[in-house]
Amino acid sequence: MNRAQDEGPSTRNPPGKRPGMKASRVYQAAFEATLAVVVAAAAGGYADQRFGTAPLLLIVGVLLGFGTFVLRLVRLLNELERRRQATEKSDDPGV
User: Fold this and answer.
1) Which ranges in 15-55 belong to alpha helices (H)?
2) Does residue 35 belong to any structural domain of this protein?
3) SS3 content of the chain, % helix, strand, coil (to 5)
4) Alpha helices, DSSP H only, in 1-20?
5) Between helices 21-51 and 56-91, what is the axis angle to 10°?
6) Which residue, 30, 56, 63, 81, has fewest beta-carbon neighbours within 10 Å?
C-alpha cells in the first residue's frame, strides 16, 4: 500500500468549494428565517400602538413572519437537496 491509500480519502477540497460553506449557508438561512419572525412581530406591535388595534396587527405580523420563516426553510431544504443530487451525480462513474 502506498501512503495515499493509508491516509484514506483525500481531504482536499474540490476546486471552487470552500470548507464549511454548507454549514455557513444553513446558519445564514436560519438566521434570516428567525429574523423574519422578529421583524414582522415588531412591525405588527408598532402598527398596533399606532392604530390602536392591539393585538390584531401583532398577530398578523407574527403569522406573516412565521410564513416567511417556513418559506425560507423550505427553499433552503430544496437548495441543499439539489446540491446533494448534483454531488451524487458528479460522483457517479456512469455505470
Assistant:
1) 21-51
2) yes
3) 75, 0, 25
4) 3-7
5) 170
6) 81
